[in-house]
Amino acid sequence: MRKLSFIFIALLLITTMQAQDLKTIKLNAPDKSRGSSVMKALSDRHSDREYAAKELSLQDLSDLLWAANGINRPDGKRTAPSALNKQDIDIYVILKAGAYRYDAQANSLQPVAKGDHRAAVAGGQEFVKSAPVSLVLVSDLSRFGNMADHTKLMAAVDAGIVCQNINVFCASVGLATVPRATMDQAALKRILKLTDNQLPIMNNPVGYPQK
Predict the structure, then answer these.
(1) Which of 62, 56, 60, 150 is nearest to 97 (CA)?
(2) Which distant-in-sequence residues (6+ apart) come within 8 Å of 118 by Cβ?
(3) What are the structural domain ranges in the chain?
(4) What is the CB neighbour count within 10 angstroms for residue 6?
(5) What is the Cα–Cα distance from 192 to 117, expressed in whole angstroms?
(6) pTM of the full predicted structure?
(7) pLDDT truncated to tens, each residue of the chain (211 aa)?
């Protein structure tokens, strides 16, 4: 029993040290003047499964995350509505260097796990690993309180709205993406240190279109 406790503590320390190797990424203020009209973006929206071998610029990443589920009002409400304003959707940003959680309040990326975890997002679909960024939409069901009968339905709807924000933004500024539900959920829950109340629902690989 003592040996098992030692192993558990050692693994916990290793995991913590790996996250500490990553630094918080401060995002740029969103450029709210860019992009095409809504009607043009909807006309241009389509799914892309091929991406250029180029990292997203910090501005593009910043604008993408703000459009997805950033704060757009002084009272802390978001670009994406949520059931009863519970704001249950967290966006995890999977980069080549590591996994981060988008902190809309601080407009930053908070480190979660070092290393390239795009294969866990891919869930066997190889094209996902070529995208420089994958956004994983996770619903924290505990934020709904005691509304157990409807939480997963509301979570799915909220994730879908954030996903559509991502799709429309990408179409508006010329980025490539595709909405997906396929992923290695067990691996992601371990990598992202999710609790039983945190449910990965969808993901969007994002990159520049392949010329």
Answers:
(1) 56
(2) 94, 96, 128, 129, 131, 134, 205
(3) 24-207
(4) 10
(5) 10
(6) 0.89
(7) 455 444 444 444 444 445 568 999 999 999 999 999 999 999 999 999 999 999 999 999 999 999 999 999 999 999 999 999 999 999 999 999 999 999 999 999 999 999 999 999 999 999 999 999 999 999 999 999 887 667 899 999 999 999 999 999 999 999 999 999 999 999 999 999 999 999 999 999 999 999 7
* Helix axes 58-69 and 151-173, enclosed angle (nearest 10): 140
Asked whether 44 and 171 are in contact (CB, 8 A), the reply is yes
Bridge partners, residue 26, by sequence: 108
To which CATH superfamily is domain 24-207 assigned?
Answer: NADH Oxidase (3.40.109.10)
Residue with tokens 């809504």: 38
Task: Give strand ranges (E) for 115-180.
Answer: 133-140, 176-177
